[in-house]
């Protein structure tokens, strides 16, 4: 079953699971991401939906 995306999509490094990924831009190969924590560079990242937390509502 597919849910409609409500939360924010976060990208995680497949190697160290860091979220400190930067987009390296697209070449012929497609998009590349660069992990600032482990120096992984590649097109594959884990995309995860971050649920909207109700505990940190703005006042
Ligand atoms: Zn990494």
Label this structure with key terms.
single chain; 59 residues; mainly beta; three-stranded antiparallel β-sheet; two-stranded antiparallel ribbon; 5 strands; binds zinc ion
What does this molecule look like?
- The chain has strands at 8-12, 21-27, 30-35, 41-42, 46-50.
- It has a 3-stranded antiparallel β-sheet, with no helix packed on it. Strands 1-5 form a two-stranded antiparallel sheet.
- The chain is built from no helices and 5 strands.
- The N and C termini lie far apart (35 Å).
- The chain has one domain (8-50).
- With 59 residues, the protein is mainly beta.
- The mean pLDDT is 84.
- The chain binds zinc ion.
Shape: extended
- Give a short account of the largest sheet: 3 strands, antiparallel
Write out the distinct hetero groups bound to the structure. Answer: zinc ion
Number of helices: 0
Counted beta strands? 5
What pattern of helices and strands is seen along the backbone?
Answer: EEEEE
Distance between the termini: 35 Å
Topology:
Layout (H helix, E strand, L loop, with lengths): L7 E5 L8 E7 L2 E6 L5 E2 L3 E5 L9
Antiparallel strand pairs: 1-5, 2-3, 3-4
The structure holds zinc ion (ZN).
In short:
The chain is an all-beta fold and about 60 residues long. The chain has strands at about 10, 20-25, 30-35, 40, 45-50.
